[in-house]
Amino acid sequence: MIAIRLLIDVLIVVGAYFALAGTLGILKMPDVLCRMQASTCIPTLGVLCVAIGGILYAACFLHSADNAIKIAVIGLMILFTNPIGSHVLAKGAYKADRKGKNSLKLNPDDYGRDINE
Amino acid sequence: MQKTRFSAVLATFILCMVVWILITWSFSVQELVAGVLVSLATALFSSRFFAHGDSWRFFNPAKIFSLIGYSFTFFKELVKANVDMAKRVYGGCKAVNPGIVRVPTEMKSDYGLALLSDSITLTPGTITMDVAEEDGKNCLYVHWIDVTAESGEAAGEAIKGELEKGTRRVFD
Amino acid sequence: MIELLIGAIFFALMAFSLVYRVAKGPSAADRMVAGDACDNLLCCAMILFSMYSGRGIYLNIALVGAFLGIIDTMLVGRYLEGSL
């Protein structure tokens, strides 16, 4: 039992470390797309470690199967749906920026074909 | 717009019902009847967007096992990219060199392209912005936070080398 | 286990600090990125607090948050793209 408690603590600390990396990235990165890249740390390793820790706690200490399955569904749902929203939002941010202020600093810029037409 | 086929509706209905049972986790008759009604309505409206081609592809055991094997490869890449991004952020957010690169890929099927681009988006440091077909090949437009490669092929090897091998084992 | 409560408070504080980006962010996409990350962090905090208190009712709130968090992001993205 004490080993499982230590494992849950380590998982929560690792999840908090990567979630803090994502949060600081959103607060400090220079432009929109870089902020989006940093924010991907939160739904991957942040949510995943916390969800695995929660599943272990619910299965080993609370002895409730439905809570464990519900946490697994929450984690998988965030993991599966986040890239779709991220992709749509990145495309929208790029197009809105190119129509307006044009302030993104990008290096090899060959993604302008369906905006300049 | 595709036509609604019976096998596609049935496959979508089974998937929705499994998700319903996992969420509620109660086997009383009232909840199961409500789940059947909701799943049937969802399947009737959305099966023509959801299941293209062979509807029973996801219930094939070989595909499921290769998908589980792919998830280990993906998890390794995920941890590597996460540690790299955490180093960049804790180092003061100065080591960024963003750019959009055009990466050619060998994938043909819709599901394979979706799985590959979702995996690329889910690793921190790369976001797929568009998928386009140019001169007979599918190309991904990827926003990359640290552009170090000169050509599209080298960038593709750095971004999706392991992921594409695993994805081709699952689909086509 | 008190460390579950400490973890939940830490995640909630991180979500609260993202309100700065939601309030300030120069463009609409900035605000939306911060809001989406806020949603995910609050789901984590809800999981940890539900495990601390031992009641499953908080998990239902986290489940609804996880399911509906995608829709507003896609709505704002489609609107910015101009195809809505």
Q: How are helices and strands ordered from N to C of chain B?
A: HHHEHEEH
| Total domain count of chain B | 2
Q: Treating each run of at least 4 consecutive H or I residues as one helix, how many helices of chain B?
A: 5
Q: If interface size is counted as residues with C-beta under 8 Å from the partner's C-beta, which chains form the largest one?
A: A-C, 50 and 47 residues
Q: Please state the CA-atom Rg of chain B, rounded to the nearest Å.
A: 20 Å
* Biggest beta-sheet profile of chain B: 3 strands, antiparallel
**pLDDT below 50 for ≥5 consecutive residues: which ranges of chain B?**
none
For the secondary structure, the number of strands of chain B is 3
The coarse overall form of chain B would be: globular
- Which H/E pattern describes the elements of chain C? HHHH
Shape of chain C: elongated
| H/I helix tally of chain C | 4
Helix percentage range of chain C: over 70%
| Percent in strands of chain C | under 5%
Annotation, overall tally of beta strands of chain C: 0
Q: Please, what is the average pLDDT of chain C? A: 90
Poorly predicted runs of 5 or more residues of chain C: none
What would you call the quaternary organization?
heterotrimer
* Fraction of residues in H or I helices of chain B: 55-70%
Sheet with most strands of chain C: none
* Number of separate domains of chain C: 1
Q: What does this protein look like?
A:
The complex is a heterotrimer of chains A (117), B (172) and C (84). Chain A is mainly alpha-helical and 117 residues long. Chain A has one domain (2-99). Chain A has 4 helices and no strands. Chain A has helices spanning 2-28, 32-39, 41-62, 65-99. In chain A, helix 1 (2-28) runs antiparallel to helix 2 (32-39), helix 1 runs antiparallel to helix 3 and helix 3 runs antiparallel to helix 4 (65-99). Chain B is α+β, with helices and mostly antiparallel strands and 172 residues long. Chain B has 2 domains: 6-52; 60-170, no CATH class. In chain B, 60% of the residues lie in helices and 14% in strands. Chain B has helices at 6-24, 29-50, 61-90, 110-122, 152-170, and strands at 99-105, 126-134, 137-144. In chain B, strand 2 (126-134) and strand 3 form a beta hairpin. In chain B, helix 4 (110-122) packs across helix 5 (152-170). The radius of gyration of chain B is 20 Å and the shape is globular. Chain C is mainly alpha-helical and 84 residues long. Chain C is elongated and about 50 Å long. Chain C starts with a helix and ends with a helix. The mean pLDDT of chain C is 90. Classes of the chains: A mainly alpha (117), B alpha+beta (172), C mainly alpha (84). Chains in contact: A-B, A-C. Chain A binds chain B through residues 17-18, 21-22, 24-25, 28-31, 33-34, 36-38, 40-41, 44-45, 65-66, 69-70, 73, 79, 82-84, 86-87, 90-91, 94, 104-111, and chain B through 19, 22-23, 25-26, 78-79, 82, 85-86, 88-90, 92-93, 96-102, 117-118, 121-130, 141, 143, 145, 147.
